[in-house]
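Before surveying the methods themselves, let us examine one representative protein, pairing a chain with its fold in token form.
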Amino acid sequence: MAPRANSTDVRGAMSAEDTIVALSTVPGRAALAVVRVSGPEAQSIAGAVVRPWPLEPRTARLCAAYDAAGAVLDRPVVTVYVGPRSYTGEDVVELTTHGGAAAPASVMAALVAAGARPAAPGEFTRRALLNGKVDLAQAEAVGDLIDAGSSAMQRAALTQLDGGLSRRVRELRGAVLGVEALIAYDIDFPEEDDGPVARSRIAAAAAVALDQIRGLLATAPAGELVRAGAVVVIAGVPNVGKSSLFNAVLGRARALVSDVPGTTRDAVDAVVEPAGAPFPLRLVDTAGLRETTDVVERLGVEVSERALAGAHAVLACGETLRAVAAAVHQVRALTPAPVVGVWTKRDTGPSGVVLATEGPMSGTTSGIAASRDFAVVAVSAMSGAGLHALLDEVVATVVARWDVPAPDMPIITRARHRSALTRAADELAEFQAVWATGALPAVVAAVHLRAAVAALEDIIGAVGVEDVLERVFADFCVGK
């Protein structure tokens, strides 16, 4: 658990001595609403509003809530949690009222009149952090879980909330502290029987720690995929069925479809999440790629080219295999992303089969095969044939290019974490450089290690200056 922070660095104008109250469910028409009270006076304040009182902790009981004049406001189910065995680590009272606007609002007003203060945004989780119930990374995961727009982001947030990322960061912090402990041992205990620590041993330990930090940092692109989705641009010349494919994958008419070439003038995007995919797909339907003198259509083509430049994968569409090959060639000049060829309008004849444009045909039973340069998937937007094979191919292509880790592995999904890991890696690299040349005394070189530790601590909100000596005594049995 994270240690308590002092009252001047994170609490700000809010006082932990206040008892706070807030609606913990979305306001509006609903069957139920939850009003949460937390703080040192939670039980006494709730006891002034709720009858009967006192209540047995962790036992839900049907009660009545009254205003100061003694009028019944609602009949909530009330549960008491005695700190530190609560979400915030303080005494907490939760009142499950009827939903809607009037009932929860009137109960909250009565609790405020009895002495509670309306909570600030995120104040319950902030108190959980200050009281050591969660660390900073876990507190951020609470917000990520609430904001998750896909099951992939939900899984990532739950892994972080369960402490997966925090444990990994602590392991990295421990690795850097191990290097620092080696140097501290040599500086503070030079007369010990073990003799001086070999410089090569310190260099090797620093290299291992740096590789581990860079390994976690390398998950940041995958984390961005999980958070925002992989951008998959549907491209090709006009009137090859791009918008029809877009609508078919979504399962609804989102883009305008017409036989008139150049109908799509702007990029249209929507999110789809294939079953079991480690990230959502952000499909982008674009204007057809062609030379045109129409000013508006040319603007649409420029939008398409910008979308291609920022894509994670591209679907190059054509009505024939020759047209698909031409589309792939055209698209590759506009994007560094991997390209999947799509043979569209396969409403008659074989569909859902990937055909190789070079070499022998293969994969006719699985629906997936690759040519020497790219995969081609035959689809029908009308019947839906081949769409599942196409989505599977897109997901596999993005996973292969962006090295997406297993779903239960900790990944970096926040810019703050990425920045802290980058600082830690940079400090370790600086340490390696000065240590290799011997340009600085050990005590000065160790400043880079301390800065790397501080950067890692920024992620989880941990502090502690005694850790180095603890590691020294544990590893070397000083004082034997």
